[in-house]
Specification:
alpha/beta, two-stranded antiparallel ribbon, TIM Barrel, 8-stranded parallel β-barrel, 281 residues, single chain, globular, 10 helices
Protein backbone atom coordinates (compact mmCIF):
# COMPACT_ATOMS: atom_id res chain seq x y z
CA UNK A 1 0.00 0.00 0.00
CA UNK A 2 1.08 3.55 -0.57
CA UNK A 3 0.28 7.10 0.49
CA UNK A 4 -1.94 8.87 -2.03
CA UNK A 5 -2.77 12.58 -2.22
CA UNK A 6 -6.26 13.87 -2.95
CA UNK A 7 -5.83 17.65 -3.30
CA UNK A 8 -9.54 18.37 -2.96
CA UNK A 9 -9.74 16.44 0.31
CA UNK A 10 -7.37 18.93 1.95
CA UNK A 11 -8.93 22.06 0.49
CA UNK A 12 -6.74 22.45 -2.59
CA UNK A 13 -8.65 23.56 -5.68
CA UNK A 14 -7.85 24.54 -9.23
CA UNK A 15 -4.67 22.54 -9.85
CA UNK A 16 -4.19 20.76 -13.15
CA UNK A 17 -3.25 17.10 -13.25
CA UNK A 18 0.35 18.03 -13.93
CA UNK A 19 0.41 20.50 -11.04
CA UNK A 20 -1.17 17.95 -8.71
CA UNK A 21 1.42 15.35 -9.66
CA UNK A 22 4.20 17.84 -9.01
CA UNK A 23 2.73 18.64 -5.60
CA UNK A 24 2.44 14.96 -4.71
CA UNK A 25 6.05 14.36 -5.66
CA UNK A 26 7.33 17.40 -3.77
CA UNK A 27 5.63 16.32 -0.56
CA UNK A 28 6.45 12.62 -0.62
CA UNK A 29 3.17 11.08 -1.69
CA UNK A 30 3.60 7.97 -3.82
CA UNK A 31 0.14 8.18 -5.40
CA UNK A 32 -2.45 10.69 -6.59
CA UNK A 33 -6.24 10.47 -6.63
CA UNK A 34 -7.39 12.17 -9.81
CA UNK A 35 -10.20 13.05 -12.22
CA UNK A 36 -10.70 10.54 -15.02
CA UNK A 37 -12.49 13.26 -17.00
CA UNK A 38 -9.36 15.41 -16.96
CA UNK A 39 -7.25 12.42 -17.93
CA UNK A 40 -9.60 11.71 -20.83
CA UNK A 41 -9.32 15.30 -22.03
CA UNK A 42 -5.55 14.90 -22.16
CA UNK A 43 -5.77 11.44 -23.69
CA UNK A 44 -4.82 8.17 -22.02
CA UNK A 45 -1.27 8.11 -23.37
CA UNK A 46 -0.53 11.69 -22.36
CA UNK A 47 -2.03 11.24 -18.90
CA UNK A 48 -0.12 8.01 -18.35
CA UNK A 49 3.10 9.75 -19.37
CA UNK A 50 2.46 12.52 -16.83
CA UNK A 51 2.19 9.94 -14.05
CA UNK A 52 5.23 8.01 -15.26
CA UNK A 53 7.39 11.10 -15.61
CA UNK A 54 6.41 12.22 -12.10
CA UNK A 55 7.11 8.77 -10.65
CA UNK A 56 3.64 8.73 -9.10
CA UNK A 57 1.26 5.77 -8.90
CA UNK A 58 -2.44 5.91 -9.66
CA UNK A 59 -4.70 6.45 -6.71
CA UNK A 60 -8.45 6.13 -7.13
CA UNK A 61 -10.52 8.22 -9.52
CA UNK A 62 -13.93 9.47 -8.54
CA UNK A 63 -16.84 7.70 -10.21
CA UNK A 64 -17.92 10.01 -13.08
CA UNK A 65 -21.59 9.04 -12.85
CA UNK A 66 -24.02 11.25 -10.93
CA UNK A 67 -25.95 8.15 -10.00
CA UNK A 68 -28.17 9.76 -7.37
CA UNK A 69 -29.88 11.97 -9.97
CA UNK A 70 -32.62 11.29 -12.49
CA UNK A 71 -30.26 11.96 -15.38
CA UNK A 72 -27.76 9.29 -14.35
CA UNK A 73 -28.15 7.31 -17.56
CA UNK A 74 -26.65 10.22 -19.51
CA UNK A 75 -23.47 9.83 -17.46
CA UNK A 76 -23.71 6.05 -17.77
CA UNK A 77 -23.64 6.42 -21.54
CA UNK A 78 -20.31 8.25 -21.25
CA UNK A 79 -18.82 5.76 -18.81
CA UNK A 80 -17.55 3.19 -21.37
CA UNK A 81 -15.33 5.81 -22.99
CA UNK A 82 -13.92 6.94 -19.64
CA UNK A 83 -13.45 3.37 -18.43
CA UNK A 84 -11.48 2.59 -21.58
CA UNK A 85 -9.23 5.58 -20.89
CA UNK A 86 -8.65 4.33 -17.35
CA UNK A 87 -7.93 0.82 -18.60
CA UNK A 88 -5.43 2.10 -21.16
CA UNK A 89 -3.70 4.06 -18.42
CA UNK A 90 -3.77 1.11 -16.02
CA UNK A 91 -5.79 3.03 -13.41
CA UNK A 92 -8.17 0.35 -12.21
CA UNK A 93 -9.78 1.75 -9.03
CA UNK A 94 -12.83 4.01 -8.84
CA UNK A 95 -15.21 4.64 -5.96
CA UNK A 96 -18.19 6.59 -4.64
CA UNK A 97 -20.00 7.13 -1.34
CA UNK A 98 -23.46 5.83 -0.47
CA UNK A 99 -25.93 7.91 1.58
CA UNK A 100 -26.98 6.09 4.77
CA UNK A 101 -30.61 7.24 4.56
CA UNK A 102 -33.34 8.02 2.06
CA UNK A 103 -36.20 10.48 2.29
CA UNK A 104 -38.29 8.54 -0.24
CA UNK A 105 -37.45 4.84 -0.09
CA UNK A 106 -37.65 2.33 2.74
CA UNK A 107 -34.75 -0.10 3.11
CA UNK A 108 -35.88 -2.94 0.83
CA UNK A 109 -36.92 -0.63 -1.98
CA UNK A 110 -33.73 1.38 -1.62
CA UNK A 111 -31.61 -1.78 -1.68
CA UNK A 112 -33.17 -2.80 -5.00
CA UNK A 113 -32.76 0.76 -6.31
CA UNK A 114 -29.03 0.63 -5.57
CA UNK A 115 -28.78 -2.85 -7.06
CA UNK A 116 -30.11 -1.54 -10.35
CA UNK A 117 -27.90 1.53 -10.55
CA UNK A 118 -24.67 0.08 -9.20
CA UNK A 119 -25.18 -3.10 -11.16
CA UNK A 120 -25.44 -1.17 -14.41
CA UNK A 121 -22.32 0.84 -13.55
CA UNK A 122 -20.32 -2.22 -12.50
CA UNK A 123 -21.22 -4.06 -15.70
CA UNK A 124 -19.72 -1.22 -17.74
CA UNK A 125 -16.55 -1.15 -15.63
CA UNK A 126 -15.99 -4.90 -15.50
CA UNK A 127 -14.79 -5.54 -19.09
CA UNK A 128 -12.18 -2.81 -18.60
CA UNK A 129 -10.84 -4.44 -15.44
CA UNK A 130 -12.02 -1.56 -13.25
CA UNK A 131 -12.81 -2.24 -9.59
CA UNK A 132 -15.62 -0.22 -8.03
CA UNK A 133 -15.50 0.77 -4.35
CA UNK A 134 -18.56 1.70 -2.28
CA UNK A 135 -18.16 3.79 0.88
CA UNK A 136 -20.51 3.38 3.82
CA UNK A 137 -20.98 6.50 5.97
CA UNK A 138 -20.88 5.94 9.71
CA UNK A 139 -21.81 9.06 11.72
CA UNK A 140 -25.15 8.88 13.51
CA UNK A 141 -25.76 12.55 12.71
CA UNK A 142 -26.16 11.57 9.05
CA UNK A 143 -29.20 9.45 9.97
CA UNK A 144 -31.97 11.81 11.18
CA UNK A 145 -35.12 10.26 12.60
CA UNK A 146 -37.34 11.53 9.79
CA UNK A 147 -35.38 9.57 7.15
CA UNK A 148 -35.47 5.90 6.23
CA UNK A 149 -32.27 4.18 7.35
CA UNK A 150 -30.05 2.52 4.76
CA UNK A 151 -26.60 0.95 4.88
CA UNK A 152 -24.17 2.53 7.36
CA UNK A 153 -21.81 -0.36 8.19
CA UNK A 154 -19.06 -2.34 6.52
CA UNK A 155 -21.04 -5.56 6.80
CA UNK A 156 -24.06 -3.98 5.15
CA UNK A 157 -22.03 -2.61 2.27
CA UNK A 158 -20.41 -5.98 1.66
CA UNK A 159 -23.89 -7.52 1.53
CA UNK A 160 -24.88 -5.01 -1.15
CA UNK A 161 -21.71 -5.73 -3.12
CA UNK A 162 -22.40 -9.47 -2.95
CA UNK A 163 -26.00 -8.98 -4.04
CA UNK A 164 -24.91 -7.00 -7.09
CA UNK A 165 -22.78 -9.99 -7.93
CA UNK A 166 -20.55 -8.63 -10.69
CA UNK A 167 -17.37 -9.55 -8.84
CA UNK A 168 -15.69 -6.17 -9.28
CA UNK A 169 -17.35 -4.29 -6.40
CA UNK A 170 -15.72 -3.82 -3.02
CA UNK A 171 -15.23 -1.22 -0.31
CA UNK A 172 -13.95 2.27 -0.14
CA UNK A 173 -12.85 1.68 3.45
CA UNK A 174 -12.50 4.79 5.62
CA UNK A 175 -11.14 4.55 9.17
CA UNK A 176 -13.46 7.41 10.17
CA UNK A 177 -16.58 5.65 8.95
CA UNK A 178 -15.55 2.30 10.44
CA UNK A 179 -15.13 3.99 13.82
CA UNK A 180 -18.23 6.21 13.74
CA UNK A 181 -20.41 3.33 12.55
CA UNK A 182 -19.57 1.48 15.76
CA UNK A 183 -17.33 -0.97 13.95
CA UNK A 184 -14.06 -2.30 15.32
CA UNK A 185 -10.65 -3.26 14.03
CA UNK A 186 -11.61 -6.90 14.57
CA UNK A 187 -14.18 -6.47 11.79
CA UNK A 188 -11.27 -6.25 9.37
CA UNK A 189 -10.35 -9.85 10.20
CA UNK A 190 -13.49 -10.88 8.31
CA UNK A 191 -12.43 -9.44 4.95
CA UNK A 192 -9.59 -9.79 2.46
CA UNK A 193 -7.57 -7.57 0.19
CA UNK A 194 -10.00 -8.49 -2.59
CA UNK A 195 -12.79 -6.74 -0.67
CA UNK A 196 -11.01 -3.37 -0.58
CA UNK A 197 -10.76 -1.04 -3.57
CA UNK A 198 -9.27 1.98 -1.84
CA UNK A 199 -8.74 3.35 1.67
CA UNK A 200 -9.19 6.69 3.43
CA UNK A 201 -7.58 7.49 6.79
CA UNK A 202 -8.75 10.14 9.22
CA UNK A 203 -8.76 10.78 12.94
CA UNK A 204 -11.70 12.06 14.99
CA UNK A 205 -12.04 15.09 17.27
CA UNK A 206 -11.52 14.43 20.96
CA UNK A 207 -14.16 14.74 23.65
CA UNK A 208 -17.25 13.77 21.65
CA UNK A 209 -19.69 10.90 22.03
CA UNK A 210 -20.61 8.65 19.12
CA UNK A 211 -23.88 10.55 18.75
CA UNK A 212 -22.05 13.87 18.32
CA UNK A 213 -19.62 13.21 15.47
CA UNK A 214 -20.27 15.36 12.40
CA UNK A 215 -19.05 14.06 9.05
CA UNK A 216 -17.47 17.37 8.03
CA UNK A 217 -15.49 17.72 11.28
CA UNK A 218 -12.60 15.26 11.25
CA UNK A 219 -8.90 15.40 12.05
CA UNK A 220 -5.66 14.53 10.29
CA UNK A 221 -4.34 11.02 10.87
CA UNK A 222 -2.83 10.81 14.36
CA UNK A 223 -3.88 14.34 15.32
CA UNK A 224 -5.89 13.24 18.36
CA UNK A 225 -5.36 9.50 18.66
CA UNK A 226 -9.09 8.91 19.10
CA UNK A 227 -9.04 6.36 16.27
CA UNK A 228 -6.43 3.61 16.51
CA UNK A 229 -4.92 4.24 13.10
CA UNK A 230 -1.73 2.30 13.77
CA UNK A 231 -3.92 -0.70 14.52
CA UNK A 232 -6.01 0.00 11.43
CA UNK A 233 -2.89 0.05 9.26
CA UNK A 234 -1.68 -3.11 10.95
CA UNK A 235 -4.86 -4.88 9.90
CA UNK A 236 -4.41 -3.67 6.31
CA UNK A 237 -0.83 -4.95 6.38
CA UNK A 238 -2.05 -8.35 7.57
CA UNK A 239 -4.52 -8.39 4.67
CA UNK A 240 -1.67 -7.58 2.23
CA UNK A 241 -3.66 -4.59 1.03
CA UNK A 242 -1.85 -3.21 -2.01
CA UNK A 243 -3.72 -0.03 -2.91
CA UNK A 244 -3.77 3.69 -2.16
CA UNK A 245 -4.27 5.13 1.33
CA UNK A 246 -5.62 8.68 1.15
CA UNK A 247 -6.11 11.20 3.97
CA UNK A 248 -9.50 12.95 3.83
CA UNK A 249 -9.62 15.06 7.01
CA UNK A 250 -12.08 17.79 5.97
CA UNK A 251 -9.90 20.03 8.13
CA UNK A 252 -10.79 23.69 8.67
CA UNK A 253 -7.14 24.30 9.53
CA UNK A 254 -5.96 22.93 6.19
CA UNK A 255 -8.76 24.58 4.24
CA UNK A 256 -7.66 27.95 5.63
CA UNK A 257 -4.16 27.55 4.19
CA UNK A 258 -3.70 29.59 1.03
CA UNK A 259 -0.55 27.76 -0.03
CA UNK A 260 -1.19 24.29 -1.53
CA UNK A 261 2.38 23.28 -0.72
CA UNK A 262 1.87 24.09 2.96
CA UNK A 263 -1.38 22.11 3.15
CA UNK A 264 0.12 19.11 1.38
CA UNK A 265 3.28 19.25 3.50
CA UNK A 266 1.32 19.26 6.77
CA UNK A 267 -0.81 16.38 5.50
CA UNK A 268 2.22 14.43 4.34
CA UNK A 269 3.84 14.81 7.76
CA UNK A 270 0.78 13.25 9.40
CA UNK A 271 0.93 10.34 6.95
CA UNK A 272 4.65 9.86 7.54
CA UNK A 273 4.01 9.73 11.28
CA UNK A 274 1.23 7.19 10.70
CA UNK A 275 3.51 5.01 8.59
CA UNK A 276 6.14 5.14 11.35
CA UNK A 277 3.60 4.35 14.10
CA UNK A 278 2.41 1.35 12.09
CA UNK A 279 5.95 0.13 11.48
CA UNK A 280 5.74 0.81 7.76
CA UNK A 281 8.37 3.55 7.47
Amino acid sequence: MYKSLSPGAIGIRGLSLGESLKLAGETGFAGLDFSIQEAAELGAAAARTLFEDAGIQYGAWGLPVRWLGDGWRDDLAELPRLAEVAAEMGATRTSTWVPPTSAEREFAENFDWHLERFGAIAEVLKPCGIRFGLEFLGPQTLRPADQHDFISTMEGMLELAAAIGTGNIGLLLDSWHLYTSGGSLDDLDKISNADIVNVHVNDAPAGLTMAEYMDFDRRLPGETGVIDLAGFMGKLTALAYDGPVTPEPFSARLNAMDDPLEAATVTAASMNDLWAAAGLA
